[in-house]
Amino acid sequence: MCGITGWVDFERDLDHERAVLAAMTATMACRGPDDEGTWTGAHVALGHRRLSVIDLQGGRQPMAAESGGDGDTGTPGPGTPDVGTPYVGTPAAVITYSGEVYNFRELREELAAVGHRFRTRSDTEVVLHAYLEWGEDLAAHLNGMYAFAVWDTRTDTLLLVRDRMGIKPLYYYPTPHGVLFGSEPKAILANPAAKRVLDADGMRELLSFVKTPERSPFAGMYEVRPGSVVRVDREGLHKRRYWQLEAREHPDDLDTTVATVRELLEDIVTRQLVSDVPLCTLLSGGLDSSVITALAAKGLAERGAGPVRSFAVDFVGQTERFRADAMRGTPDAPYVHELAEHVAADHSDIVLDTQDLMDRDVRSAVLRANDAPNGMGDMFTSLYLLFAAIRAHSTVALSGESADEVFGGYLWFHDPAAVSADTFPWLAMFGRAGGERLGMLDPGLTRALDLPAYRADSYRQALAEVPRLSGEVGLERRMREVSYFHLTRFVQYLLDRKDRMSMASGLEVRVPFCDHRLVEYVFNAPWAMKTYDGREKSLLRAATVDLLPESVSARRKSPYPSTQDPAYEQALREEFGKLLARPDAPVLPLVDPKQADGILTESVGTVSSEFGRRAVELVLGLDQWLEEYGVELDLPA
């Protein structure tokens, strides 16, 4: 896993802009602590920071190749300082690549059979030759998580490619004569041509809890949509989707479906265990992470490489003081330890306290990693600290993320009122619980932003995209819509959070449940089959019941943990009080003083204060972001 960045300008000679390219590349050092490289041509500048995972010596980047099947491959020389042996000859294409392609061995054999020669064992070289063989269509051949850019010197064309589910991020910023791009906004913002502006739509994105495809908080900056390619040439910028969910008849009966899910999971995890560096799993004691850990333990044992190493996050006193609520019925720790013992894992708990979560340097690091504020506070900070601790032992981790979106695990999948609401189901459930308090904005700004209209527009766009199956009606039709919303709008929040918090410490997190073969198969299984036993995630549970203790297999869905220590909420309020007392705080013109004072006077630990806590987290982060990033506001009066 790595960090990439670059710049195309058809009216400038970028050979003279190496200092700017170096600054852009330096922002990605956290994503790639092991190596760096740059390459410049007349109208292109490419940067790369490397986290070495496969072929530690041979996968250096940017990487170049000649055209044709018998071409050479190596580190490109012209314009590239300090990156080793120069590339000999004129390259046909140069790549800066981030990710893992899990079928790269099969692709290498296929490409070698038609004449391609390889000098390394890296998947990067395979992807580069796949471009030379298939051009823009290469992405259809890839299985994995990736975001990369290819510059074709024969046509002066840049191709930006992102994986099907959007596991790896990729942003771009069109300019009058080209484009800037990077794994994260910070790489683009290091170029003077990029402006740091928060406009109305950017603010709506920060507040709406709906991930609109392609949008970012920064005006003029966009994400490459998952499953898409963006081509930039002298004629302009062109977007094309190479993959999207399709509605298909599901031909299999229940037993066959369960067996197929298990077969797919076995293959996926086996592929994702490939690594030349230490590997582990993330374990929460829930069904999803327990399945991944158990399958990893099984796969490692079969190759004589066990035991599996696992890690869990916990908070001081969390089990002892645990209070069940509508989202979390049980603490994680007992189930974590039972599963770890069951599969004989080499397990470690990363236990955090309020002092860890409120550490100013840590909270600042989380903001910089995310490039934007968030309202989830400790759920970002604890994840960052978990990953930082894991990185001392492992470079790669397997996660259970996204199983809820694929198999239908969240509570609102099974709440009739949320499902039938004329909006995204999670918004319907959060709204009933008082989640609108998260805004805490000036009433005039709130009216001008009109979040309900923004969300409604986003919902209509998503609804119009849903693939349909002829004759599908009633609940089956609606649950296809709900599944589509989660796989295209909701999961992006979680994948982005995991990527940013992990790569801030140079930890690669793999997401087996996002394998597109599994996603496509389960998406088209009937909802009645996905809930055949009256439970959530019925297919996943049935496919893996033999791997887990009964208590873990039967455990009800419990989201990523949040600290319940009253001292944490009190510490937040103290920081919030200090902010309100600063007349020059940049966020104050956006905040409703009456509502802010009301949150401060609530009793710690009350039901309403849970939402007040999220509002405080958001305002604290927004203030810090506006100040540290020098963001210019372009908001309606």
From TrEMBL:
L-glutamine binds at residue 123. The record marks 401 as: Important for beta-aspartyl-AMP intermediate formation. InterPro entries: Asn_synth_AEB, Asn_synthase, ASN_synthetase/amidase, AsnB_N, GATase_2_dom, Ntn_hydrolases_N, Rossmann-like_a/b/a_fold. CDD domains: Asn_synthase_B_C, AsnB. It comes from the Bacteria. Residues 2-235 form the Glutamine amidotransferase type-2 domain. Residues 60-82 are annotated as: Disordered. It is an enzyme of class 6 (ligase). GO terms for cellular component: cytosol. One of its GO terms (biological process) is asparagine biosynthetic process. Pathway: Amino-acid biosynthesis; L-asparagine biosynthesis; L-asparagine from L-aspartate (L-Gln route): step 1/1. Residues 68-77 have a biased composition (Gly residues). It catalyses: L-aspartate + L-glutamine + ATP + H2O = L-asparagine + L-glutamate + AMP + diphosphate + H(+). Transmembrane segments: none annotated. Coiled coil: none annotated. ATP binds at residues 282, 313, 399-400. Its EC number is 6.3.5.4. GO terms for molecular function: asparagine synthase (glutamine-hydrolyzing) activity; ATP binding. The active site is at residue 2. Keywords: Amino-acid biosynthesis, Asparagine biosynthesis, ATP-binding, Glutamine amidotransferase, Ligase, Nucleotide-binding. Belongs to the asparagine synthetase family. This is asparagine synthase (glutamine-hydrolyzing). It comes from Actinopolymorpha rutila.
